[in-house]
Write a structure and sequence with these properties.
heterodimer, A: 111 residues, mainly beta, B: 114 residues, seven-stranded mixed beta sheet
């Protein structure tokens, strides 16, 4: 059974600071997704990572995937208040279309 | 584009009642999914479908049923609602279900069972 663990689950940081969210998973997979969810809203796709060593960046967010370590990171650079949200990683099963989601990291960026 | 449309947005049910949550997508996606999200938690897969006429169980299917008679629609049926089914339900779809296509999510249905 595929298990996905994120840490930290809660993160409070100051504007301008850097931080990293970690996503570990238990079995082999070569695709990982990051989503953002604002309170009371739906999930918005941020990144799709499909191979070992994949790195993608959008604005102040950068995601990477290490399939050998079964680890993905979401790095936040110079955080701003607008990044406050819950971030989920989701790992795809190796054969098939199903995703397993982590519990989410609730990020609060304080002025 | 409307994307993935879920109705209703909110609903309160009494224990033992039944209802159908509607999900429709206009992107011609062949893969569709139903998830539930409990407070402060991630999403858990209830059922999914890889095409019209084909459905399969996810992680938490008990107490739910689905059907997929068309590519566009994927309704979720709750029979004999229980308080444990109080949750936010999300429908999602994707083009192939594979690799480089993220799942696109609807706005969710917030369901309370009292």
């Amino acid at each position: 059974e595929l298990k996905v663990e994120q840490n930290p689950l809660f993160l409070s940081m100051q504007e301008g600071k850097n931080y990293t969210i970690y996503c570990n998973y238990s079995t082999t997979s070569d695709r990982l997704y990051w989503y953002r969810q604002d309170p009371g809203k739906s999930l918005e796709s941020l990144f799709v990572l499909l191979s070992n060593g994949a790195v993608k960046q959008e604005g102040r967010l950068m995601a990477s995937l290490d399939t050998k370590a079964r680890l993905s990171t979401l790095h936040i650079t110079a955080a701003v208040h607008d990044l406050s949200a819950t971030y989920f990683c989701a790992v795809g099963e190796t054969s098939g279309s199903r995703l397993t989601f982590g519990e989410g990291t609730q990020l609060t960026v304080n002025p | 584009n409307a994307g993935v449309t879920q109705t209703p947005k909110f609903r309160i049910l009494k224990i033992g009642q039944s209802m159908t949550l509607q999900c429709a997508q206009d992107m011609n996606h062949n893969y569709m999914y139903w998830y539930r999200q409990d407070p402060g938690m991630g999403l858990k897969l209830i059922y999914y479908s890889v095409g019209a006429g084909i459905t399969d169980k996810g992680e938490v299917p008990n107490g739910y049923n689905v059907s997929r008679s068309t590519t566009e629609d994927f309704p979720l049926r709750l029979e004999l609602a229980a308080p444990s089914q109080t949750s936010v339900y999300f429908c999602a779809s994707s083009w192939t279900g594979l690799l480089n296509q993220p799942q696109h999510f609807g706005d969710g249905t917030r369901l309370s069972i009292l």
